[in-house]
Amino acid sequence: MWLAEGQTDDYGDILPNLKEQIVEGIDELSREIDTSADNIVAQALEHIHSDELIMTAGKSRSVESFLRTAAKKRKFQVIVAESAPFYNGQEMAKSLALNGIETTVIPDSSIFSIMSRVNKVILGTHSVMANGGLKAFSGSHALALAAKHYSVPLIVCVPVFKLTPQYLCSHDQDAFNCFASPEDVMTFAEGKILSDVQIINPVFDYVPPELVTLFVLNIGGNSPTYIYRLLSELYHPNDYVL
After folding, report:
1. pLDDT digits (tens, 9 = 90+) for 168-194
2. What distance in Å separates the CA atoms of residue 84 and residue 237, rounded to the nearest whole number?
3. Which among 8, 29, 121, 232 counts the fewest CB atoms within 10 Å?
4. Is the separation of the CB atoms in 203 and 181 below 8 Å?
5. pTM of the shown model
6. 120-123 and 102-106: which strand pairing?
7. What is the Cα–Cα distance from 208 to 206, expressed in whole angstroms?
8. Measured between alpha carbons, how far is 210 from 206 in angstroms, rounded to an integer?
9. Helix locations, the chain, DSSP H
10. Closest by CA position to 124, among listed 28, 229, 204
């Protein structure tokens, strides 16, 4: 057995039943992924009530299922911000309308002016950081700030497997972000203008934990301050930095 200098762990040790333990762990994770969506939508009636005005943005399968499940026993209205320049909100609104939910599409510029009438905001997210912040679709931060200004609760529907031990701060956005083609913002036909400006089209926003009211997880509802406890159960401290 060859070991690097200073390395004390001997990976040549024989561990009995290691294969069975790995297979069991993979099966458990697979079952959790398969059932997480159902466990999230089962909580819909606890958070959505009749005659409420709910705002969302972009397209999230978790949020869509959450709203559709609640609509089976509750009558409410949904406002969907179109989420330019990708306009995923238009797809979301169409899907909700086809399922009998009264839905209104608004441009992103109208979010702040309408927020005072909204009862709660429900969003999905790409992942949840170790501090309870969100790595969410572009435009989420502005929406969360508007909700905070009017004291509107912000609820995030997310399965537990989207929790990550990675820490993120607002000044680190360039490091974690992805950037889409600037053509979504301004077409290449505007060549004369493009030569004089720099166009950045980020895919994600960082939403700090103080703007989030509640996470609806497949294991129940938790506040952002409880995320660190969940991480201690899901990750070994040595795995926080890979």
Report:
1. 654 456 666 788 877 777 776 666 777
2. 39
3. 8
4. no
5. 0.83
6. unpaired
7. 6
8. 12
9. 18-41, 44-47, 61-71, 88-98, 111-115, 140-149, 173-176, 191-194, 227-234
10. 204
